[in-house]
């Protein structure tokens, strides 16, 4: 059977668009998209003139002289129309993407505000726990005197407790170590402590603090609490559950923060 025949002339022939693309004329138009409008217009004129030259090489009998006023006006009109069309298309595409982002990822269109961590200091007059609701507005003054308005991201329970001291790890008889953290309350009244959140800050070094938290997560066996008496390496108290990371309260389950926004906040202010 005869094999397929190929037209050598058509196989080696390239379209004017391919020649312009390989010659760099269309690349110049694409590169000038972010340039001023007059530069874009000149790039359009250059691309059309290259197309005119390529067409004349294929059709020498065509009357497309660049000096012809009619041809010059047509090229100018085509360049102006092409530029306006491209600009309108880019605006429409951009507005379409912005509408989509506003509908699904509106938080990505706004920069993240400054974030900080607050520490409440309970005075002797505070005898009961207090709750600072989420979105509570706080005025924070920087070292240079500038004041900024901030809002809390989560509900914050303020306990009338003071960290008295952290004792060095004590050696236990079974070979383990016990770390004793002592808190002091201003009064001897019974108080429902609930969840006691601890923030590890090692010399303002976030990476080192995370290493300490990781070691605690790996090696911590149990946590016990005792009231109104001293503790040593053998003291036994009430067992407590331990969790790591931020855990919302049950009443805070209506938080609608997008997961991507939570990741964005973490990298903005990991603490």
Descriptive notes:
The protein has 271 residues and is of the alpha+beta class. The protein has seven helices and ten strands. It has helices at 8-11, 16-23, 25-31, 37-58, 69-104, 206-219, 259-268; strands spanning 130-132, 137-141, 147-151, 156-158, 162-166, 170-171, 177-178, 181-184, 223-225, 238-240. The strands form five sheets. Strands 1-4 form a two-stranded antiparallel ribbon. Strands 2-3 form a two-stranded antiparallel ribbon. Strands 5-8 form a two-stranded antiparallel sheet. The termini are far apart. 4% of the residues are buried. Mean pLDDT is 77; it is low at 1-11 and 250-254.
Briefly note the structural class of the backbone.
Answer: alpha+beta
Question: What Rg, in angstroms, do the CA atoms define?
Answer: 36 Å
Question: Whole-Å distance between the termini?
Answer: 76 Å
Runs with pLDDT <50, length 5+?
1-11, 250-254
Strand order of the largest sheet: 1-4
- Percentage of helical residues? 25-40%
Name the quaternary structure. single chain
Index terms:
alpha+beta, elongated, two-stranded antiparallel sheet, 271 residues
């Amino acid at each position: 059977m005869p094999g397929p025949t190929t037209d050598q002339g058509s196989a080696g022939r390239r379209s004017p668009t391919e020649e312009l693309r390989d010659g760099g004329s269309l690349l110049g138009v694409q590169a000038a998209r972010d340039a001023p409008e007059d530069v874009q217009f000149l790039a359009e004129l250059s691309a059309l003139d290259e197309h005119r030259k390529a067409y004349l090489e294929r059709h020498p009998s065509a009357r497309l002289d660049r000096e012809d006023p009619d041809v010059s006006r047509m090229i100018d009109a085509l360049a102006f129309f092409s530029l306006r069309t491209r600009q309108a298309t880019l605006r429409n595409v951009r507005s379409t993407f912005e509408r989509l982002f506003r509908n699904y990822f509106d938080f990505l269109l706004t920069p993240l505000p400054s974030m900080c961590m607050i520490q409440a200091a309970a005075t002797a007059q505070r005898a009961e726990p207090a709750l600072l609701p989420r979105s509570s507005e706080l005025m924070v003054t920087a070292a240079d005197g500038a004041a900024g308005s901030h809002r809390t991201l989560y509900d914050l329970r303020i306990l009338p407790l003071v960290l008295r001291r952290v004792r060095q790890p004590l050696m236990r008889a079974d070979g383990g170590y016990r770390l004793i953290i002592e808190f002091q309350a201003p009064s001897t009244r019974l108080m429902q402590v609930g969840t006691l959140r601890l923030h590890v800050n090692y010399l303002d070094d976030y990476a080192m603090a995370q290493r300490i938290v990781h070691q605690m997560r790996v090696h911590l066996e149990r946590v016990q609490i005792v009231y109104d008496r001293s503790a040593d390496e053998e003291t036994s108290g009430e067992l407590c559950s331990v969790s790591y990371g931020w855990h919302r309260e049950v009443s805070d389950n209506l938080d609608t923060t997008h997961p991507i926004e939570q990741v964005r906040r973490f990298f903005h202010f990991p603490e």
